[in-house]
Design goal:
There is one protein chain. The protein is α/β, with parallel strands linked by helices. Helix 1 crosses helix 6. It is globular. The protein contains 12 helices and 15 strands. It folds into 2 domains: about 210 residues, Alpha-Beta Complex (DHBP synthase); about 100 residues, Rossmann fold. Bound molecules: threonylcarbamoyladenylate and magnesium ion.
Amino acid sequence: MKPIFADDAAIDYAVTLLRQGRLVAFPTETVYGLGADASNPDAVRRIFQAKGRPADHPLIVHIPSVDCLNDWALTVPETAQRLAARFWPGPLALILNKRHEVPLVVTGGQNTVGLRMPDHPVALHLLRAFGGGIAAPSANRFCRISPTQAIHVEEELGDAVELILDGGACQVGVESTIVDLSGNRPKLLRPGHITRHEIEAVLQTELIIVSTQSEQSNQAEMRAPGMMVVHYAPVTEAMLCPVDRLSEMLQELTLRNKKIGMLVYSLEQPENGLTRIIRMPEQTNDYAQALYASLRELDSLQLDMILVEQPPNTEAWRAINDRLCKATSAYQPKNLS
Ligand code: TXA
Ligand code: MG
């Protein structure tokens, strides 16, 4: 399916398709979403088929305004009101206890629902015109790199989606921050553009940080695809490498005639016949915006290996490090052969 420029007529057509229970991909400020009418279980099931995603992985419901929280959440705690007032529309998803009417297929069988009001003119126009909630995971096949441009959606899903609305490249570039407010204490389930400190400043309390690596065995975590250890991953083997080991690693691989792609942001490294180097921005927001398109580009070059320079291990880089760890965790240095 070729992307269509998201003008008024295209958005009207998208609304018609959604009402018929069909799938529409649309831009948000984070990544492109694969949308379906969240109140229609058959439509939502089509999302899982198109993505090849297991049925017990919950979806985020996108809503057109803060007022719609009550349509989906059983109760809206004061903490949710405060975060929504401060950050919506924006790259923050809230997990709340769900109303009885919310289909279980949306929530992967859980009693909580993820909700978000995206900050993108096309997404907001679509949501307002549709007048309901749109369930939308990232518009990629299961465990693959999220799309940040309409063309990526076409590459990922082909004709499995009825319409791809093209709203240009996504500004944020990594998926929303997810905060779980369904229990006694607020938890950070997925780091994103809105940082832990920004959320803690609004809530006036510390977040519990749910760490993917340490909670792998927790079944509830395994239901959350963004929480799985391998995710957002290129097909090419990809390895995260501290800057002081990059040159050595590159040399070793080039000696063995391996074709290498590199994402670097500080290392000065010239390209040669065997290496393709993408220099990433040094500023975190710009790096995040460029990350998935850059990984995708390297992944399309039939390389033997992608080496990624490890960014600093600081709070500002948390979301990027989280995605890079997941994109590279299938391949540890020991697998080098
Ligand atoms: O930025 C985003 O959030 C993008 C755009 C399209 O809005 N969407 C997105 O959706 O990243 P997806 O399905 O790829 O990731 C949604 C994440 C998953 O990790 C899922 O586990 C979590 O949200 N999630 C959704 N509902 C949940 C729930 N009830 N409990 C725990 N986690 C939930
Ligand atoms: Mg996803």
